[in-house]
Write a structure and sequence with these properties.
about 180 residues, three-stranded mixed β-sheet, 5 helices
Length: about 180
């Protein structure tokens, strides 16, 4: 009888263990991955001032001589407004502005100072007209004289096409990576 009782207890214990193993050891159910990853939300910029007025970056550059001359003058005024710049001239070639600047006599002349000044001029010109994609700035007398000659020729009413060769040469010198 003891053997029967012991066998019943063992069978019951085995059934209990088997039931616990089968029901309690399930792996956690995993949720399927979404089909596409959601894009992170970007905060919208806070604008304290109205958006800038003027040409849209997608508008074409002017081709008529008067319009080109007006844009060159506008960009030259922007470049001349940078501290340390006495006068500036701009010649346009497509969406590239070639800027020649005459520095004030007390402007810092070190290599780092000149690079910083050129960066300031470049960013000021880009902000003045969003269609300008590339800006090259020169401070040496020979290059400035050529940029000035082109800018004044366009202002006098000469077609931009007459300066194509000069513009291409200046582009190679001032902005060799720009095509």
């Amino acid at each position: 009888m003891q053997k029967k009782t012991l066998a019943c207890v063992l069978v019951g214990l085995l059934v209990l263990i088997l039931a616990v193993v089968l029901t309690g050891c399930r792996t956690a159910q995993r949720k399927p991955l979404p089909d596409r990853t959601p894009q992170p939300e970007r905060p919208t910029p806070i604008r304290t001032a109205p958006p800038p007025q003027g040409p849209n970056a997608n508008e074409p550059m002017p081709t008529e001589t008067k319009e080109v001359a007006a844009l060159q003058d506008k960009l030259a005024r922007e470049a001349a407004s940078v501290a340390g710049v006495k006068r500036a001239w701009v010649a346009l070639s497509g969406n590239t502005a070639l800027v020649g600047v005459e520095l004030e006599s007390d402007a810092p002349r070190g290599q780092d100072d000149a690079a910083g000044l050129k960066n300031d001029i470049s960013s000021r010109v880009r902000r003045a007209d969003p269609r300008i994609k590339n800006v090259a700035v020169a401070t040496d007398d020979a290059t400035v004289a050529r940029v000035r000659q082109i800018a004044e020729g366009v202002k006098e009413g000469k077609p931009v096409k007459t300066f194509t060769e000069d513009l291409n040469d200046l582009m190679k010198r001032m902005a060799p990576g720009v095509k």
